[in-house]
Amino acid sequence: MSAETFYVTTPIYYVNDAPHIGHAYTTVAGDVLTRWHRQRGEQVWFLTGTDEHGEKVLNTATANNSTPQAWCDNLVEQKWKPVWKALNIANDDFIRTTEPRHMERVQRFMQQLKDAGFIYAGKFEGPYCVGCEEFKLPGDLEDGNCKVHGKPCAMLSEDNWFFKLSEFVPALLEHYKKNPEACQPESARNEVVAFLESGVRDLSISRSSFDWGIPVPWDTEQVIYVWFDALLNYATAVGLGDEADSAGGKKFAATWPADVHLVGKDILRFHAVIWPAMLMAAGLPVPGKVFAHGWLLVGGEKMSKSKLTGIAPETITDHFGVDAFRYYFLRAIPFGSDGSFSWEDMGARYTSELANDFGNLASRIIAMIEKYCDGAIPAVARDEELATLLATSVERADVAMCALDFQGGIGAIMDFCKRVNGYVTEKEPWAMAKDPANQIELEKVLYNTAEAVRALAVLLHPVMPTTTQILWESLGADETLGDIKGQKIADVANWGQLPTGSRVTKGAVLFPRLEEKPA
Ligand code: MSP
Fold first, then answer.
1. Does 429 map to a domain?
2. Residue 445: domain span
3. What totals of helices (H) and strands (E) does the chain contain, helices first?
4. Atom 26 (ligand 1): residue with closest C-alpha?
């Protein structure tokens, strides 16, 4: 773990097209993790960005009669950044691999590895999949086609520069043995260990047949292999190799190593084999954790633009809203497993968990406080069962969220929400209200419910920032307890925070009834 900052990254995405919900899945997970840790009171740095070099992007730009730089500039500004903004992604930085800050640091790093004797000249002969941007082994192919893309590979024969990757196999195996948390989930770690044990070749880290990339510093006829360039983004973005007393050097000291690299399982080996070996070669600490999540599937296959199965996030957010989008994928699919997206399943969860369990509870408590207490939070009360359950739920949620078990974390919060609904149903405050003699009892029930809803707003804030903010304001809590973002996970279960007499107001419906599914 880095000394001062909890550093979270997403992969940097290829800009051969606009983002689909597979990309958004990773980025939202990173955002929720970031926001959760911020509410734990930690200093967090969250990085995302775009991977702009290599043949894949070059070919797409050329096919669209564009220069690669103009193509990337346009897509990054018109598609990628706006989609993250629309999804409420709170990244601290956005790195593009065509930026000078990245290119200069990559060149310097590569020169350093060459000077240290880890890079040599060689010849690469073999299959290469442009879709994966990967040198393939015969075992990676099926009938000569890339198994991931189902397309033929190019046969390369190039004089390239090689990185002595194979030298790092013993150190990597030792690393994963000593630090099992460094590659998660366990199935991913097993895969990486098996791969390392099966024998790893040295890696070609340059290409000579096209020029869209960062020039090899000592051989400008070649460009740096796109993955060698891209992996370095995590470190270049925070000042890799800068003088210790410069701004970059200080940032690097405070941030590196990264605590969590979130990746899809398709790019696990790059992150858990090549990347730590590059860092070891430079004498730098390796990342705390690489977490490989599963794929969103369409028709049983990985959703992808190249197979024309990519769904744009707007298709879903236009119908369900941004917060439901952020909630659904993390709630429905265990992080680490594949999951199929189904409109019907999302509709069902929206209605039962968000609109009924959470949204209705929120609107009912505000309406009842307005009706039975003139809109003022009643005297502080404490239901022992609810207060205790809240404390254990927060603990469960925190352990799960920190372990990137989003399903378990959100599940713990939503189980508490269900119990609060049960409490209201059992107490029947509307029946109590019929007899003025019950006013004190009634107010206790309303206070307990409001307090539970306060806690739910705070706990769900990292997942659904917009709706919980609306709820926070309708509880009057922004004026009495301060900004919702500033509410700490460690304090959520301190019962009795909503101050007596503060005003509640009816806010917008949090999860409106869904329109018919669009045709
Ligand atoms: N540019 C490389 C990554 C370099 S990181 C140093 C790359 N880019 S990508 O655009 O193809 O994005 C890959 C990532 O997008 C996956 O690892 C995953 O995080 C996400 N996903 C893309 N399709 C996905 C699904 N169908 N399902 C889940 N996540 C998916 O690889």
1. yes
2. 343-491
3. 22, 18
4. 303
Looking at the domain assignment, is residue 2 inside a domain? no
Helical (H) or strand (E) element with 61 = helix 55-63
- Enumerate residues 6+ apart whose C-beta is below 8 A from 5: 43, 44, 45, 254, 255
Give the C-alpha separation, 156 to 369, whole Å: 72
> Looking at the domain assignment, is residue 171 inside a domain?
no
- CATH of residue 462: 1.10.730.10
Q: Please list the active-site residues.
A: 20, 23, 129, 132, 146, 149, 302, 305
The pLDDT of residue 519: 59
Nearest-CA residue for ligand 1 atom 19 is 264
Ligand 1 center from residue 6 Cα (angstroms) = 22
pLDDT-derived band of residue 517, with 50, 70 and 90 as boundaries? low
Name the residue with tokens 């409106």.
Answer: 512
Residue-level pLDDT at 518: 62
> What is the pLDDT at residue 437?
98
pLDDT of residue 1 exceeding 50: no
Mutate to test the pocket of ligand 1, among 130, 266, 316 (most ligand atoms within 8 A of CB): 266
Alpha-carbon distances of 479 from 207, 380, 472, rounded to whole Å: 59, 18, 9
Q: Is residue 380 part of a domain?
A: yes
Q: DSSP secondary-structure letter at 167?
A: G
Q: What is the rounded average pLDDT of the residues 411-440?
A: 98
Helix, strand, coil shares of the chain as percentages rounded to 5?
A: 50, 15, 30
Centre of ligand 1 from the C-alpha of residue 11, in Å: 7
d(CA 424, CA 427): 5
What is the count of structural domains for the chain? Answer: 1
What is the per-residue pLDDT across 249-302, written as a single tens digit (0 to 9) for each? 999 999 999 999 999 999 999 999 999 999 999 999 999 999 999 999 987 888
